[in-house]
Sequence to fold (635 residues):
Amino acid sequence: MNEGKQRVLVVDDEPQLTRVLLRSLTTKGYEVRVAGDGEFALQTFHDWPPALVITDLAMPNMDGLELCRRLRQISQVPIIVLSVRGEEKTKVEALDAGADDYVTKPFGMDELLARIRATLRRQPETDAQTNLLSAGDFQIDLNAHLVTHKGNELHLTPKEFDLMVHFLRNAGRVLTHRALLGAVWGGDYTEQNEYLRVFIGQLRKKIESDPSKPRHILTEPWVGYRFHPE
Amino acid sequence: MTTESVYARKWFGFVAAILGIAAASGILKLLGDPINPTTVALAFLLLILFVATAWGSGPAIVASLFGVVCFNFFFLPPIGTLTISDPRNWIALVAFMITAIVVGQLSARVKRRAEEAESAKREVERLYYELQDSFERSSQAKALKQSERLKSALLDAVTHDLRTPLTSIKASATTLLAELNSNDSSNSELRLGDEGRKEMLQVIDEETDRLDHFVEGLTKLARIDAGELHPQRQWSSVPEIIAAAMKRAERRTRDHRLEIWIDDELPSVRVDEHAIAEVVYTLVDNAAKYSPADTTIRVAAVPGADSTVVITVEDHGPGITAELRERVFDKFFRAMRDGDVRHRKTAGTGMGLAIARGIVEAHDGRIWIEDADEQPGTKFVAQLPVGDDETGPLTISEKRRKAQA
Fold:
């Protein structure tokens, strides 16, 4: 928190929950504002640009999904979606619409705080001059097509390399099956989840110390994958 | 009918035709000589008519021809020959023959037509039943599908409504726990403080009440659905019921103007007081929720048609469009969430009106929505039968008189 308090915009139509979040996040050193629906959230976003948006999905007037879409048109602000368990489909839609992460209701405050920290921390540094991409223990030299993990070179096929680049660029973020397939194979393959499973398996063998208990490429059941660079 | 039996029937018809004419000739002969040929002709015609209607045109023709022969042989002079002496008798014989054949054919045709009509009717009936059957089957399948869809929608709604308070409770509880677990007392800025702790506990307290209220509603709905809502009926005073409901709604209606109007000639009603008070409370609470502060909520009770009592609750909120007026009584339906009312800040369970309708219907009453007398607005109308037992209902004035006596 070197530039003062980080601003968090909480969007939920449930006053009791926003009351708790306001108190809890404020105590943790964030500057918090609350909006009861998507429309009001967009207004607040203009007047008071936050570092992070936490939004519920089911809301009157403008729901969380639409809010994600609208926000993505104007900003790259990180978005965490809150969704009630059982709303898997909407959750995936929200991630595809531009959300960075999701937390399932009911949630423990520790989990939400950890997700907030992780989401705020990401933003991998790309050195435009050298075309060097680095996050945590991983580094990719885009020009030399070279991937290193803790200084050791990894031998990857071209598709695995593409997948790795996409993961590093979006470290810490939940990537839906659809988003990964679209990014690496192109739009025609977005329904072919089994392709992805095979390549993830291969990639895990190369970068995980124990591929059966992955630490870096984590499965988000029914949604997609999340890359942890550390 | 099989083909075999049709043939057997046909042959039997031919035999019966011949035997019938023979028997008739015998009987007529026995009746005495001489007999009027006209009598004979009429008797034969009658027989042919009978044969035609019973067995159709073939036997009828046989009977006609055989009848001509018998008529000529036994009854037209000279008797005992197939010759005819008097030319007038020729005319009689030919007339008889033509009449016999025409009558036979006509009546046979009538019989055939009747049979055709009968079988056509049976065919139509069969088709009708088949059609009805398939209609029933398809509508059953449709209803089943609809009820499945409804069930999963209800389950979604219930899940959502249970998890919402749970989310606030869990968030508060984990915030408190995290504070308790962190021994980082040095950094006093990152602590909740007394006020924060109190707020977390308040949220937990309020939200557990909300959950409890919700579960209570679910239980009531389940009882209504299972038909297990048995009102504890007793003679009750409507003004007392309304007063009890208004007292309970006091906190909710603080910002509204209240108007209560009770007809002087209102009879007592035989109802479950607590249940009906809950209905009135639900309607008043609803009115307060969906109408702006400082508007009037009007509660009225008047005698209705067919010995009923009509309780109305009227608000001056935005009103409910005609197409939503039945749906608001559906379980978990909320006009603000699911319909077109753009009013927020209200947190209902979507069960109140469903329960209210269940209670009113368990009393054999009806509840519905009408246009408010002053637009815009909503008017809920609950009509309850006065009820009966041997004592009969008393009007309020009667009761008052009785009490004073």
Remarks:
- The two ends of chain B are 85 Å apart (CA to CA).
- Confidence is low (pLDDT under 50) at residues 336-346, 390-396 of chain B.
- The beta strands of chain B are 234-236, 257-262, 269-271, 296-304, 308-315, 366-371, 378-385.
- The first strand of chain B starts at residue 234 and ends at 236.
